[in-house]
Design goal:
Structural class: alpha+beta
Largest sheet: 4 strands, antiparallel
Radius of gyration: 21 Å
Low-confidence stretches: 1-10
Strand content: 15-25%
Mean pLDDT: 81
Order of helices and strands: HEHHHHEEEEEEHE
Shape: elongated
Distance between the termini: 45 Å
Length: 188
Amino acid sequence: MNTTGGDPLFRIHEAASAGQAVELHYTPTAADMAEALRARNRTPAGRRQRRPYLLLSVLGPVLVAVLMVQDGGTTPVTMGMSAGVLFGWAYLLFGHRLMARAFRGALEAAGDCGAVVDEHGVAVSGSGFSTRHQWSALGHYAETPAHFAVFSGDRQAIQVMVLPRRGLADPADADRLRAILDRHLTRV
């Protein structure tokens, strides 16, 4: 009797060895995470998260100018509002880099990682962790020149899985990976 056939990780590697899955081996970096977070801005959840900062960046200067004209110059209120506008612009331009830096410690602790993408979902493992996500828990993916980034289907969650192209054994695997992702997720 084969007792390993019921093990989900065994099935993942069995599918990979049969050519039905794509395997990646890589060491994640903060630059990988920054690029994935920038790509997340194209998802509906990412656009919704950025909307208040866009409004602040566009309408804030107008409101500050109107208040300065009414008050005849700068006041503590207009200075505070100007600082808020500057924060909004900084977040829009550099927010993905700042959030990626926050992940740096976790990325270093992950060490060398492996991922398997197959018809059942995405499995990622590294030093001390292993996670498996079925396609029903995922919603979108984005492709950048150096990465594939997979995002949660939850509107409130910021779940990002980065699959760097450098982790593919063969450049032709990028086409196979794209085909699997296209079958199960919405491309943004």
